[in-house]
Each structure stands twice: as structure tokens, then as C-alpha cells.
Amino acid sequence: MRAALWFLALFGVAVASALFAGNNQSTVTLFWPPYRVDMSLNLVLLVAVGVFLVVWLAMRALDGLMALPREARRWRIQHQERQIQSGLLDAMAHLAAGRFIRARKTAERVLTQERNLANVEPQGLDAAYVRRAQRLRVMLHLLAADSAHALQDHAVRDAHAQQALGETSEREMQDMREAVQLTATRWAVQDRDWPLAQQRFDELPQGAARRTLALRLRFKMARLSNRKLPALEVARLLGKHRAFSATGTLSLLRTLAIELLTAGKEPAQIAQSWAQLDKNEQAMPEVALAAAGHLIACGGEAKLALVWLLPVWEQMVGAPRATPTDLTTRIRLVQVLEQGFAAQSDALDASWLRRIEQAQMQNPRDELLQYLAAVACLRMRLWGKAQQLMSQALPRLQDQALRRSGWIALAELAEQRGETEAAAKAWREAAKA
Fold first, then answer.
1. Is the distance from CB of 295 to CB of 270 less than 8 angstroms?
2. Can you tell me the distance from the alpha carbon of 318 to that of 234, in angstroms, rounded to the nearest whole number?
3. Cis bond leading into 34, ω under 30°?
4. Which of 23, 236, 283, 430 could make an S-S bridge to 407, C-beta 3.0–4.6 Å?
5. Which fold has domain 356-433?
6. How confident is the model over 300-319, as pLDDT tens digits?
């Protein structure tokens, strides 16, 4: 469409020129004593246009000639800029490929090229390039420092890091400064220099300290320095930031909570660690079982351990077992409850006895509940009922530890009744288990 309009306009100009020039009888007279020159108006117009074109072309040629030095300088600067950018990419590629010596040498060579460019052509550099060059120098120093860190050359690493920080003093370079600080923090964590790593963390701005990368570094430092509570707190933040999958977050929190609980050696320490967990962590069956079992093993109050196990018990009774993991949790719960009943005489109170009886009556075919009911009857000195329930549960028990404990209980009951053969048979079965 545009080309058609141009053709129409050209044809219009041609028609107008033909109409004007074809019937134009005007003349232009030039008096130059003693001469007189008569020329047609058309010729005068053509000569004027020709002179204008010649002058315009001459001025353009002169301007191009005068601009040759400037264009040559501009070409040299662009060529060196391309070399510097290419060198930056080479240094990044060498670092990613594990060629640390090449990466450091390339970065240092490009830094020298950039410094020479700034010294040789200071007038030919525009403001935009000056800003880009400052970021470029920071990245090159950071690449050289990271390569030196990989080579365990801490002196060169620290020197380049300080130079990179010196380039980021301006407010517009705050993002580059945070990048250098986070990288320096990573170096300290990898070197296991915990005081220096903590100092680096304290120097981070508040916004940068909340980022996922900073939280990962803080978590790694807490794990490597064996600080369990800070590691758990940072893992919670990482879970909120979705740094891990939902399953991975639950597994990590469960592992850290169990480590925190089992690290205590005194009942008071275990209770304090339990209070530091949030409700979701306390509701995890594995965590509650580990806490209760460790508290009982350390001589703590069995009643408190049973209180911690109450949500796990309700979950076990309310939901049928479906997977091997659920079965393992149920077996572990029965074992911990048995340990709690044995550790403290008044731990098996009326409320727990009622819970066990109701659960066993609702699920009469559940061997674990039968075994637990038999244990409860033993603690309540109901020997006959205990023997009946234990005898029914033993053939269906899959866990060897529970089978061994059950046969030992039957052997002791037989010895109390004076049944030597039954006791010997029970002891043999216990030995087999």
C-alpha cells in the first residue's frame, strides 16, 4: 500500500512538472555589463537544483572525512568491548567446567584489558559504558575470587573480593554488593570457619538475609556446626519459602526434630526440646515416639511421655494400618507404651486402661492391641486374662522383639503357676525369637 502511494505521488509530481515546464514561456535575464544573458526559467531551476545537490554532497563528504578519526576510535572501543565481553563468557565457562586456573587467568586478563581501555580512551567512553564497566569489573573480580577459592588460594581470593567490594560502594551497585557478600559467606561456610561465616551473615542486609540462598547457607552452617535448634528453625523458613518439596520438607523437619530431642541427656533437656517444637512437629508420630522413648530411657517421667503419645495413639486407633510404614509405627508405639508401663508403676492409670480395653474390644482381631491389652493385664496382675490374650496374639505377631517379650511373659506366668514344662517351652520359643 505504501509503495502504491509513493508511485501515485511520483506520477503526480511528474505530471505537475510537465505541465509547468511544457507551457512555461518565462525567461530570466542576467545583466552583466556590457553583456546581457537571457535564459529560460526551466534551465535556471535545473541549474539551481544541480548546484544545491553538488554543495550538499560536498558537505556530506567533508563531514564524513572529518568524522573518520572519531569513527575509528569508536570502532576500536567497540572491538575492545566485544573482546572483554567474550573474555567474561570464557571465564564463566571455564569456571563452570572446573578449569579454575584458566578461569582465574582469563578473568585477570580481561580485567587488565578493561583497565587499559579506560586509561587509553577516557574521552571515547560514554556514561552508559562506564556503568556497565563497573558491573563488569565486579563480575570479573568475583569470578577470579571464586576460582581462587576452588584452588584454596585464600590470599588471591580475599584480594579480589575486597576489590569487588570496593567497586560496589555506590548505591546503584547494591545488588552487586549483595552478590559479593553472599559469595563470601558461602566461602566461609565451605571452609567451616564458623566465626567468619557468622560475621558474614551479620553483614548481610536484612532483605538479602531472608533469601532462599542465604537461608540454605545458614542451614548448612548450622548442620555442619552441629547446632540442631538453629538448623530446625532455618529448615522451617526454607519450608515456607518452598525451597524443598512438601515431602522433603516433612522428612527434613522430622529428622531434625528427632535429632534435637535425642541430643538431650537429661529429662529436663528433653522436655525443653519438646516445648521448642511446633504443633505440627509434635504431631508427627515418629517425633513423638522418639521423644517419649528417649525420655523413658533417660529416667524421665513416664506419665509425661504417655501424654506426648496420646495423639499417636488416637491416630493408631482411628485409622487402620495400610502400609508397612504404618505397621512399623504401630509396633514402635506398642513398644514405647510397654516401656512406659514398666518404667513407672502408676503410669498405667484408669484412663489408659480404659483406652486400651475399648480399642481392643473394637478391634478384637488386631494382634498388636491384643498384645498391649495382655501387657496391661500383666501390670494390673490379671494373670489369667493376660495369659489368654498373649496366647491369642503371639501366633500372629510379626515383630520378633514383641514375640520374644510375649514368650518371656508367658514363661514367667507359667513359672508362677509351677508349670515347668510350659515355662521351658516358652523359654525355648523366646530363645528362637
1. yes
2. 34
3. yes
4. 430
5. 1.25.40
6. 888 898 899 888 888 887 76
Q: Of 239, 319, 244, 243, nearest to 281 (Cα)? A: 239
Question: Amino acid identity, residue 291?
Answer: A
Is the CB of residue 42 less than 8 Å from the CB of residue 21? yes
In the structure, what pLDDT confidence band is assigned to residue 275 with cuts at 50, 70 and 90? Answer: very high
Q: Which three cell numbers stand for residue 161?
A: 573480593
Q: Is 55 exposed, middle or buried (0-12, 13-18, 19+ CB in 10 A)?
A: exposed
The answer to whether residues 287 and 261 touch, using CB atoms and an 8 Å cutoff, is: yes
Grid cell at residue 4: 502504491
Q: What's the whole-model pTM score?
A: 0.73
Instruction: Report residue 166 as a C-alpha cell.
Output: 570496593
d(Cα 413, Cα 405) in Å, to the nearest integer? 12
DSSP symbols for 342-397: HH-TTSS-HHHHHHHHHHHHH-TT-HHHHHHHHHHHHHTT-HHHHHHHHHHHGGG-
- At 131-165, the pLDDT tens digits run 778 888 999 999 999 999 999 999 999 999 999 98
pLDDT for the residue numbered 121 = 60
**What's the grid cell of residue 334?**
506398642
pLDDT of 83 over the 80 cut: yes
Residue 280 to residue 79: CA distance in whole angstroms = 61
* Residue labelled with grid coordinates 540454605: 216
Widest CA span of the chain, in angstroms? 164
Domain residue spans of the chain: 27-66, 356-433
